[in-house]
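Need a sequence for this fold. Nothing fancy.
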C-alpha cells in the first residue's frame, strides 16, 4: 500500500480534481484504490455521489472508536472506494491536538488497510496545520498541484522549506502543474522557470480545461463521462510518471 496525499497550502489549486481523476485512472488500471476525503468541504465525496457523513464524526474516528474499514463506501466504479468526509472534520486539528502523538494518528488509522488497497489517495484541505503534519507522516508521496502563478509558486516554496526544516526525509514532495494555460505568457514563463529550479516537477501538466470543470455538473471523475481529450491524456501521463517515481 502506498499513500499519496494531494496537498497544497493554497486553496483551489486542483487537489480534489487531481485526486479524483487520478484515482479513477489508478482503479481502471486494476489497482485497488481508496480516496479518503479529509476536507470538511467534502468535494471528493460530492464527486463520487456519496453522502458526506461519518458515523461518530471526527471525534470517534480519532479516538479509534471506529475502524476505517466500516466507514468505507463503494463508488460506481470498480476497484474504487471512498472514505467520505464529514463536516465535523473542521475540528480535526483540535481533536488531534488532544492526543499524545497527534501527527501519528492518521498512520495508525491507515495501518489496518495495508492489505486491502494498493493506493490510498488523501484529498487534503488547504492550509498547513496539525492535520497536515499528520498527513505528511502518513504519506509516501506528497503530490502538490501548482497553478503557474506567483502565489502558488510562493506556497510551494513555503512547503519545501517546512519539509526541510522538519527533516521529513521519507516524504517525497512531487509538484505538478495544474490549470496550466499555455496561451498565457505568464504561465509559460513561470513553468519554464520552475522546471529549471525544481527538476522534480512532473513533466505532464494538467491543462485549464472546461471538461475538467464540468465534473461538478456530472458528479463523477472525468474518465466517467469523457473517453478521449487533452485532459484525459494529461491525467494518464501524470499517473504513469507517478508510478515511475514510486518504482524508482
Ligand atoms: N484543470 C482544471 N481546469 C479548469 N478548472 C479546474 C481544473 N481543475 C480544477 N478546476 C476547477 O477549479 C476549482 C477548484 O478545483 P479543486 O476543487 O480541484 O481545487 P482544490 O485544490 O481541491 O480546492 P480546495 O483547496 O478548496 O480543496 C473547481 O471548481 C474545479 O472544478
Ligand atoms: Mg479540495
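Here you go.
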Amino acid at each position: 500500500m502506498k499513500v499519496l496525499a494531494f496537498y497544497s497550502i493554497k486553496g483551489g489549486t486542483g487537489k480534489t480534481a487531481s485526486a479524483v481523476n487520478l484515482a479513477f485512472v489508478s482503479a481502471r488500471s486494476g489497482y485497488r484504490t481508496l480516496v479518503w476525503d479529509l476536507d470538511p468541504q467534502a468535494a471528493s465525496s460530492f464527486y463520487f455521489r456519496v453522502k458526506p457523513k461519518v458515523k461518530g464524526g471526527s471525534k470517534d474516528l480519532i479516538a479509534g472508536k471506529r475502524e476505517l474499514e466500516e466507514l468505507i463506501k463503494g463508488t460506481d466504479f470498480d476497484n474504487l472506494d471512498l472514505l467520505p468526509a464529514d463536516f465535523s472534520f473542521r475540528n480535526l486539528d483540535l481533536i488531534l491536538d488532544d492526543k499524545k502523538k497527534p501527527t501519528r494518528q492518521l498512520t495508525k488509522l491507515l495501518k489496518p488497510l495495508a492489505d486491502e488497497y494498493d493506493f490510498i489517495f488523501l484529498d487534503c484541505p488547504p492550509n498547513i496545520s496539525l492535520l497536515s503534519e499528520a498527513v505528511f507522516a502518513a504519506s509516501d508521496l506528497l503530490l502538490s498541484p501548482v497553478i503557474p502563478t506567483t502565489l502558488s509558486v510562493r506556497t510551494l516554496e513555503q512547503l519545501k522549506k517546512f519539509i526541510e526544516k522538519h527533516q521529513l526525509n521519507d516524504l517525497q514532495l512531487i509538484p505538478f502543474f495544474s490549470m496550466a494555460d499555455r496561451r498565457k505568457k505568464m504561465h509559460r514563463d513561470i513553468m519554464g522557470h520552475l522546471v529549471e529550479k525544481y527538476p522534480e516537477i512532473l513533466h505532464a501538466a494538467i491543462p485549464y480545461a472546461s471538461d475538467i470543470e464540468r465534473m461538478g455538473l456530472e458528479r463523477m471523475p472525468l474518465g466517467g463521462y469523457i473517453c478521449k481529450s487533452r485532459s484525459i491524456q494529461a491525467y494518464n501521463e501524470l499517473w504513469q510518471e507517478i508510478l515511475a517515481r514510486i518504482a524508482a
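For context: The two ends are 16 Å apart (CA to CA).
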